[in-house]
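Teaching assistant here, posting this on the class forum so everyone can see the example we discussed in section. The complex has two components, and the goal was to see what a joint structure prediction looks like when all of them are supplied at once.
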Amino acid sequence: MLALAWANLTHHPLRTALSVLAVGLGIALLLVSKGLANGSIAEVNQRIQSVDAEIVVLPAQENVIFTNGAPFPQSFANLITRQADDQGAMAAAVIPVFFAQVNMGGQQQRLFGIDPAQMGLFLGSRRVLAGRPFDRAYEFAHAVTERRRTGGAQASSDQELADGLELVIDDRLRRAGYVDTQTGQHRPYQIGDEVRVMGRAFRIVGVVEAGVAGRVFAPIQTLREMLNGGEPWSSMFFVKLRPGVDVSQALDRFQSVLGSQARVELKSEYGRLLHESFAQLNLYMTATSSLALVVCFLFILLTMYTMVVERTREIGVLKALGMLRRDLVLLSVIEASLVCATGVAIGIGFSWAAKGVLAMVRPLLTVELAGGLVPMAVGVGLVGGLVSALYPGYRAARLNPAIALSNE
Amino acid sequence: MSEQLVVEARGIYHEYRHGSVVEPVLRDLDLTVRRGEFVVIMGPSGCGKTTLLNILGLMMPPTRATSLRLLGADSLTLPDDERARLRRHALGFVFQRFNLLPTISARRNVELPLRIAGQPIDGSVDRLIERVGLLGFAHKKPGQLSMGQQQRFALARALVTRPALLLADEPTGNLDSANAQAVLELLSDVHREWGQTIILITHNERLTVRADRVLHMSDGRFVD
């Protein structure tokens, strides 16, 4: 049966190749879109997990992927700081982050505004590969704080901000680089390069190992001055607990004092929050690629049906020789399964190739093909092939052999 | 039913319908064929020969019949799969247009009935191909063979399961006289040597010379 199915397929090599290609492209589309979604979520989560903290405080109603602006006043940080158990303060450090957007590396990046003094909590064991983290920003922040303490105005002029206009980027973003508008050539970022952020020229002062929470950092005070009139509001907080503090107790305590405006979660739950936030988009992407795959399977169905019509006489011969109806359906299923299995294999190959190409042309995108994706592709491909083959197989099985043999 | 009867058909009636037009092609035919008989059915085009062969070969049911027994089995009451099983084990077909599968080699075509029947592929395939004189051509696909060669392979395919009944529908209709003679010789040989039961329909008077019995059909009936 297998040999007969194989012979039927190889008898029409172009049509078979096109069918295989159709399935391969559909599978690749499904795999790459799912892999891109999974990879992006995993990569963001991995970076967030690198922060030396146990708890995250997020805006209650916002989608964690699109969190921007600064909904939390300083009083939230103070409330967290003041919470204590029998042993004293629960939090060893409250780490405010102020998010902004910047276009770097060919795409929008989330700019992490952080307190330069807390850079170590973000770096962990990761090294500074080039330059230095925010030296002059210390002076800037100090000057602004001092001015405000003495009743002066906020820093707002370019000259006053200049000392704070510093960026630290990670090595992956450095390698992603930019296209030089004068030469048209791609260049990696270097220490000293200027980057426009919200109309102001920031200077890259440091490059750190990839894997830190943000791909690009700026001093939080600088972003507050530029975007929030210098007010010390924050987009979110990380909370590093004092050693020995009961995490779930701290979680409950923080949630109760911060109320309904904030969502207090374990940092380890951030991945789940990302998946929840991404659910709608993921659903859309899955639906789109599944639709493409359905079109591919319709192509297979049409091909198989055409083959049945073309081979009416041959089917008549097989029936005359005593082939049972179920064997004719099986023959159709085997042919479609061979096409789909080859298509799935090619689709997986295409996906890995696409991953490689994306890594070269869009190095900031992460495509994750591991886990259950490949078995899913195999399952979808084979089930699709089976379903596509059933109707043509049924038609073949129902043919009257005498009429089939008289077919011209 | 006698053990010697391969075919026992009574009151076979068949009609084709084209919309409201009813065209009777077989009118209450009776036919019995004994084991080892070589029966030739002759008649003009459209007299119902091929329809009769299709009904005897269980490839289509008659519109009505009093009885139709093949090797003692009442084929009128058999479900589709049982008719298919009876075809694969008891019947061999040779068609005017050969009907070899174009996607596989001639040898594979000859092996096909054995594979469908789940029987082992043994030396009988080579012996049959040798018998039809085409051992050197067995690796070729049907499209690479002459019409005479295709029909000889088709004959080998029909005989490979050693069927109780061989049904041949104008087997020489597309062949030149030399090839037609070769096919006739082969049919005659297997009839004589194996005692093969054969029902052959043809226009060709020359094919009747080896027959045990010649029946003439006209307007859906046997005449004479």
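For the discussion questions: Residues 177-194 of chain B form the longest helix (18 residues). Helices of chain B lie at 49-56, 80-90, 106-117, 123-131, 147-159, 177-194. Think about how each of these relates to the inputs above.
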